[in-house]
Amino acid sequence: MTALRILLSVTAALFGLLLAVPIAVAALPFWAVAFLTRVGAQYLEPSYVTWDQLIEFTPVIGWKPKAHLNAHYLTVCEDGVFHTVTDAQGWPGTAGIAESDIVVFGDSYTFGYGVDVEASFFSERHRKARIKAIGAPAYNMVQELLIMQQLSSQLAGKLVVWFIFVGNDLHDNLVPDMYQLRMPFVREFNGTGHWEVVTSHVSPAHWPYLSARFRDSTHRGRIMANLHSQTFFAQRAYSACQFLIEEGRNICNGARARLLVMTIPDPQTLRQDQLQSLLSLSAEPRSFDPALPDKRIGEICANLGVSFVSGRDHLDARHYKIFDPHWNEQGHEQVASLLSSFYE
Amino acid sequence: MITLVFPPRRAWVTSFWLVASLGSGVFVGLLAALLISPRWFGLGVIVALVLALPRPLRRQTIAYRGWNRLARDFGRAAHLWLLAISFAIVVVAGGQKGRSLRLARPSSTASLWMPRKTLVPSVYISPYSAATASAPEKGWIATFFSWARQSGNLWALSLLPFFMLLSALRTNQRESDLPADIYTLF
Questions:
Q1: Are A135 and A110 in contact (CB under 8 A)?
Q2: Co-location of A53 and A150 in the same domain
């Protein structure tokens, strides 16, 4: 029975092969194009690392870029691979704080994420003032404050610029996790309006669960929309922000440095076609205002006697990338010239 | 694999554009050489050079997506066709001569429940493939060979060319593979 079964199947297979030949022939151009494209791409693209390979655990802060990096990293796929270098402390660029006029604290925007380091706002290419960037992808303001504190002895006489990315910084100040990483955050004393920095949970161990903002793609939209409306969440977020800016001001005053806060608008709020969908996610759509974060943070800074620059007044959709919410080279050039004008 | 990486990185789009320009040039050159004169093959070189001139990335990406969609649709149709052939062989070979599966007949008091040993926790993501000894190291063709030999299903080897074709026509890089969010990077 086995021999007959083999005979039957081989006969059927030979007949089937005749029917499959046209498929194989028609597939040849697709195979050839896919193969040659793959080979060509390997020559055109430098070898790269992913963003999580750029960072390492550091106590209290949570993570930090690795020191002495000289690597290409992958951002959003369509956007490609970009070059970065870090100094001996892990901060972007090679210049030190001592030889800089301006020290910028912030997150991935400050890190120069999404452009080659040579095109970033802190590169020598288009700067009139010497700028040192202190930042890493995914930082919140609490981490930036803690680093400001650590580096305070080096800030004397400098202009300290604090970038606040409206897209997620204000929310992330209130939560203990960033994907699988643990990060410092602030918590309020039983609704008293007084806040404290929490770092006790920060360790190299993975955070035990994945927050809703990483599981649900609309969650971030809702956070954004509610931050731009008169909501309870916005009230908490701006209260925490006020605490952090006040702490930052005290550090800078103590270090005899001048603090300037600059907001970075989320590109969604700069594009008319995306505003409507954002508005629809708000819990209080009637109070939705794309410029609300700038107004609120501007008020906070005015009350605290801190200089403030609204990013909305200087940046527009042209300064952002298409596939990614970070600045493009034009955006970095604009920020470089802005920073130079602040210094002057 | 007949599809291209999606979403594409810049290097992939540029590489595809160069390959497409070269391919178009060769096609036009061959056509001209066959229809007019072999000396007209040079026309293909001109076509390739003109097409390979730098174009806006957006336009190149549109061409890339278009080609990928075509490859994916072709792959799906080819996949169905090859599966139909494979099933036909199974039915012809297996169905005509009955089955070789032997089922144990339990006594009236015996149970057919089989005790199962536990596996290492790390393999529980796919316990069935883990139970196949050294399958990943040998590659699927070698595994298929040894399974056919050990199980007495040598006839199934006649399916191998079709499985190889199916494997080569994989189109698993779909638009839904797009990263949903890059929140963590801000």
A1: yes
A2: yes
Q: Are strands A131-135 and A195-198 parallel, antiparallel or unpaired?
A: unpaired
Q: Do B15 and A44 touch (CB under 8 A)?
A: yes
Which of B102, B150, B185 to mutate to test binding with chain A, by most A CBs within 10 Å of its CB? B185
CA-to-CA separations, A22 to A17, A19, A26, A327, in angstroms, rounded: 9, 7, 6, 49
Kindly give the parts of chain B with pLDDT less than 70: 94, 96-106, 119-138, 172-184
Chain B residues in contact with A321 by the CB 8 A cut-off are: none
* CB within 8 Å: A77 and B81: no
pLDDT at residue A1 in the model: 62
Same-domain pairing of A39 and A53: no
Quick one: A35 and A104 in the same domain? no
ipTM of the complex: 0.74
Residues A250 and A272 in one domain: yes
Q: How many domains does one find in chain A?
A: 2
| Tens digits of residue pLDDT in A128-153 | 789 999 999 999 999 999 999 999 99
Instruction: Locate the chain B residue with the closest alpha carbon to A55.
Output: B185
Instruction: Count the residues in chain A.
Output: 344
Mean pLDDT of A152-165: 97
Residue A195 is predicted with a pLDDT of 96
One domain for residues A157 and A221: yes
Give the burial class of A305: count Cβ atoms within 10 A of its Cβ; 0-12 exposed, 13-18 middle, 19 or more buried: exposed
Residues A104 and A231 both lie in one domain: yes
Contact B162 A19 (CB under 8 A): no
- Same domain? For A127 and A21 the reply is no
| Residue contact B23–A29, C-beta within 8 A | yes
Residues A23 and A111 in one domain: no
Which residues constitute the domain of residue A259? 49-343
C-beta atoms of B94 and A325 within 8 A = no
Query: Which residues on B lie below 8 Å from A78 (Cβ)?
Result: 7-10, 61
